[in-house]
Write the structure tokens for this entry.
Amino acid sequence: MRVLLVGAGGVGTAITKIAARRSFFDHMVVADYDVSRAEAAVAALGADDTRFSAARVDASDREAVTGLLRRERCDVLLNATDPRFVMPLFEAALAADAHYLDMAMSLSSPHPERPYEECGTKLGDGQFERAAAWEEAGRLALVGFGVEPGLSDVFARYAADELFDEIEEIGVRDGANLTVDGYDFAPSFSIWTTIEECLNPPVIWEKDRGWFTTAPFSEPEVFDFPEGIGPVECVNVEHEEVLLIPRWVDARRVTFKYGLGDEFIDTLKTLRKLGLDRTEKVTLPGGAEVSPRDVVAACLPDPATLGERMHGKTCAGTWVKATKDGRAREVYLYHVVDNQWSMKEYGSQAVVWQTAINPVIALELVANGTWTGTGVLGPEAFTPRPFLDLLTAYGSPWGMREQ
């Protein structure tokens, strides 16, 4: 397998470090708009591993990406950019007759009249609309395969296959006790993506109603996270799992709630009030054009650089309320990463590392023929046990707690 990795930020760099310890691929081209970032990611692996090379590419330029895929004879494009580049990369892979994998799906847009009641364009709609073309090409687009979405979806399928007969609710719950020395506000993941998912109308699935929306940060609940993280207040946030899980897993209700904290929520609300969440460019005195959201991102520290200042653990997981043999049962399937461990073992902070390990495992399962398929498929479309076994084999086991 020859891989084109587009994006050499925190997650992309962590992907190279994880993949370097595995033998399932022949070569990985690491490409970024800023070629120095790609070159740094490759150089960090050492001169002995010649399976990696660096290149420059503009992720928004479909033709340029298609050309790079063809020149490098890549079998798969692994997208480690933010969601605004999903569609050009997704289409470039199809044009180059390559497989495709991403960790976030095509962007949503709210309903024009009833944004907090009805869905407009849903996350992933742009990709699922192209499913027939991928099937006809005999190629696989494996979408939404980071940690959330991704591992959380694998947990949902595992619960349906091996733990329960009937599922009442699947609720993805994400929380952490991470702190960053020296910063009052320092998101541990891309602020561009964080603004997008936290300020958009959250989506909920109910079997009798389908997909519908609610207000941002609604339905707060305190969820007790494992391995010393403890109670964290979680709120509804727009996320891909709610759009993916019901396509393959039978459940009466599906939700996603994120542990943000009052200060984080207040900051996001302030950004919206000031219009700093906008992606449309504005013209400054002097004629320069900038996107307010890009300015916010530029003013904050790069999450990939925060590892040495970060302390604590992050937890991604899936809570399932269901029945087995007529008896009610609730479990929480989870994956915890300690920042001290990920920094010592890989030199990557916990949140980006936890995101990065999952697409690497998925690629390995595709490369060795364990997972096969064509079209646009989510993580739930595949048998979960091989993935969970390989996650443990990579040295990062998952857990299950009775609720």
About this structure: The chain has 14 helices and 20 strands. The first helix runs from residue 10 to 19. The first strand starts at residue 2 and ends at 6. The radius of gyration is 20 Å.
